[in-house]
Each structure stands twice: as C-alpha cells, then as structure tokens.
C-alpha cells in the first residue's frame, strides 16, 4: 500500500511540475535598455577581495615610485566576451 501511494505521489508531482510554464527571470526584458558587454576585457584576480576597498575600478596609475598602486589593467590577462 505504501509503495502504491508513493508511486501515485511521484506521478502527480511530476505531472504538476512538468505542466507549469516557466516565467522569465526578468520582467519585460525586451522593453529594457541593454548594454552589450561583448569585447575584450582586462581581468585582475582578487583573491583577498581588496579591489573594492582599493578602488581598482578607478584604474589609477602610480604618479611616483612612492605611490602604492599594486595592480595594472594594462598588463593584466585579457578575456574575450562573446
């Protein structure tokens, strides 16, 4: 009896899950303004997550030898985004 009820429960749940239409993850995607990210991107690995507090996104350059800028987007590996 228990096997029959488990089998019926599995059939019903499979039918319910497969019959539902999946909705888009974002509402009205065609009506939104989009920006293409295609192209070549410079990437810097940030294992200690210091990029945000170090303001890596500003892409600052050392103005003198005493400036402590320890990253360079110019010499970083490149990624091709399709």
Characterize the structure shown.
The chain is an alpha+beta fold and 82 residues long. It has one helix at residues 2-19; strands at residues 39-42, 78-81. A two-stranded antiparallel ribbon has the order 1-2. The model has no long low-confidence stretch (mean pLDDT 81).
What proportion strand?
Answer: 5-15%
Order of helices and strands: HEE
Radius of gyration, Cα only, in angstroms?
26 Å
Tell me, briefly, the overall form.
elongated
Query: Span between N and C termini?
Result: 55 Å
- Name the helicity range: 10-25%
- Average pLDDT rating: 81
The tally of helices reads 1
Task: Tell me the strand order in the biggest sheet.
Answer: 1-2
Largest sheet properties? 2 strands, antiparallel
- The parts where pLDDT drops under 50 for at least 5 residues are none
Number of strands: 2
Derived from helix and strand composition plus strand pairing, the structural class reads alpha+beta
Features:
single chain, 82 residues, alpha+beta, 1 helix, 2 strands, 10% strand
SSE map:
Blueprint: H1 2-19, E1 39-42, E2 78-81
What would a concise description of this structure say?
The chain has 82 residues and is of the alpha+beta class. Helix content is 22%, strand content 10%.
């Amino acid at each position: 009896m228990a096997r029959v009820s488990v089998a019926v429960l599995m059939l019903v749940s499979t039918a319910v899950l497969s019959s539902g239409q999946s909705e888009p993850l974002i509402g009205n995607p065609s009506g939104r303004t989009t920006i293409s990210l295609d192209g070549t991107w410079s990437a810097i690995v940030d294992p200690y997550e210091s990029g945000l507090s170090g303001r890596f996104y500003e892409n600052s350059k050392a103005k003198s030898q005493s400036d402590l800028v320890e990253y360079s987007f110019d010499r970083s590996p490149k990624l091709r985004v399709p």
